[in-house]
Amino acid sequence: MSLGQRIQDARKSAGMSLDDLASLTSIRSGLLREMENNNFVACGGDTYARGHLRSIALKIDVDPLELVNMYNEEHSSEHRAIHDLLVENNVATMPVERKGISMKTLAIVSVSALALAGVAQIVISNSKTTVIPEKIVVTPTVEVSAPPTASASPSAVASPSISAPEIVPNTDGVKIVISAARGNASIEFVVDGKSQGKNKIFQGETKTFSGTKSISFYLSNAGDMDLTLNGRQLAPLGVHNQEVRKTFRAGE
Fold this sequence. Notes:
The chain is an alpha+beta fold. The protein has 9 helices and 8 strands. Helices cover 43% and strands 19% of the residues.
């Protein structure tokens, strides 16, 4: 038996019409009809739905806990792990990073190539000096020719290459600031694939979540929340009591 059928049977057993129950509970008869049809979307979220069920139970002589437990099993999204919900929406999979050749590797290769070129120049220069006839008078030009110049070449090139591999750290990341500007909400965040647990945020409170790769989250009342992404104010993600799931990744 569904929750809606259970409410309808208990109401009829109590000898009440929908209008009678609406008058006793201050809940619209149209909404009561939807609930008896096992449709709780118009209740405005889990918190309001449970409140309506407790009020109804007291008037139709049913244990409120029985109706609330049935609602949790059939309709509540808060009793499912946020990671399972995100997987269903393909937002929990971390993007695969492409690996490229690092600047440090390129710099080492460049320095090695220049060093080999310098050694080759020294060998060639030394081989040329050995075939000079002894009777030729060595001039100052010959004395300072290839060997000093060749040996200085690798040193001159290697000096700036040592500082070349400096890598600028990647400062990209994801930082979300959520502010309960107009009401309360249930929230659940997954930062870099790790769940931060279920929380409540009350009107006037602000919470901050930071990650290096991605942040996925669930809000039960998106219309009353203000969100800032990396210092940039976001447009409203929904309306009052609307449930929203969203993922932001570094670099987006």
